[in-house]
Amino acid sequence: MNILGINAYHGDASAAVVVDGELVAAAEEERFTRVKHDTAFPLQAVAYCLETANLRLSDVNHIALSRDPWAMLAGRIAFAVGTRAGRRMAPERASNIGSLLRAKRTVAEGLNVPQSDLKAKVHFVGHHRAHLASTFFVSPFERAAVLSIDGFGDMVSSMWGVGEGGRLNVMGQIGFPHSLGIYYTAITQYLGFPKYGDEYKVMGLASYGEPEYLEEMRKVVHVKGLTYKLALNYFRHHRDGTSMTWAGGSPELGPLWGPGLVSHLGPARADGSEPLEDRHRNIASSLQRRLEEVELTMLRELHARTGLDDLCLAGGVALNCVANGKIFEETPFKRLYVQPAAHDGGTSLGAAFFVHNQMLDGKRSYVMDNAYLGPEFSPSACRQALENGGVKHRQPSIPELIDKTAEALAAGKIVGWFQGRMELGPRALGNRSILADPRRTDMQEILNARIKHREPFRPFAPSILEEATGDYFDQSHPSPFMTLTYRVRPEKLDEIPAPTHVDGTGRLQTVRRDQNERYYDLIKAFQARTRVPVLLNTSFNENEPICCTPEEAVETFRRTKMDVLVLGDFYVEKDGAAPLPT
Hints:
five-stranded mixed sheet; 20 helices; 19% strand; alpha/beta; 35% helix; Nucleotidyltransferase, domain 5; DHBP synthase; 3 domains; globular
């Protein structure tokens, strides 16, 4: 049974292919179009997934879309006809739904396949059901509590229940206009970070402040058990609506916060050009702390209602690794699973598994324990990219390659590390990574000055051998997808200052050899030289989507002040690279 999952006309468009219950390939469209968070129909991602699965479009039995145009229909109609915002936004929403309904035709035309050859049945899976399916059905748990939290999808912002075997049993949900994701995004905008996806910046900024405005935030969002509500006088999405761009290109959201927030918190920071003040840092800290209070309250109640110790999280809020890192300390849950594409980019695989398990009664046989589901490139393709870029290179043996790279890292050099299949999700996990020595106190500043050019309050991540996690952090539960933040042990702070955040924490990735053999061996080789089983890891990009192809990696290497490029089996020193033309 071949199922094609699609997230389209929404943020982080993506595709996934599930064959007989196994996830064979998955990727976000932005990696191919080079447009961040692309909202277009993911034709290139679909083509990649089908090619990797060795399928033609005519071989697909089911197409699963992670939206349901008919969900919450009464609420949609009431909003559309009963509010000024709904009436203004109705044509745009109708166009979006119409595009979804034409998805089968769109994919056939886009791949130049006669519609008569496409026999697949189309299924519309509710947005949050797709989120829940994306985490539970690929988790190692037979039975678990499940929770999804994000902005909005199909007029719903949160959904919870129990996953058992091949079934999801939904216990409750929260609908429009209340949304924990909207709360976080609105205040992110208020703080002068208006771009789609900027919430992760504010999560990093929060550690530089104090929760001075926590009481004010408690008035903005209220929680009781599993239910939360926004104080709507601080927002405008329910009254005025907000402009949204979902028909291709980067998504754009209009302002979500209303004038009441200014009365409550003071003047907004107009844009990124204004200096960050202590007040802004303290608002960010208070925003983050209140998010944690609400989510952890919900989780304690979910545990009480289900009595289960295993938890699966999904939705954009599930990528808030600071909040995730507190689950073991502040709730009774003992085990946690968050897949690497917990955001909307993962709903394509969730929709596919919902159809396989929930609708077709397929058996569960697949556990997603690594994120390497994207394109990979042959040695000849890597060599061709280097030759086309005018980059001198050599191909040592694999042991020599690893040893030489570890030596470069230990000497303080910055390494572009391009290996195997590209990761799914927003975080580089050792196949499309820029690596550096975690022991250097100045390495964060060096990386920002030479390559990343991003805000200094955004931390880099530590990749650590899984077996050493408890030696360096206050918890040892694995975090293979960089979705948990732990506190660095006090005695280890001086050993890994570069990826340690200002508050003494690290957003870690744990690495096992059976998950990523070459990356594990590299960290092990670095440990042999330095006695430190950690590398600083950041994504292989420069203010663009993470590199997908060897050509993109070579171009990034040439235009930045990176010292070393390891492209598959090939090793390159900077003095062997021809400069880019000016």
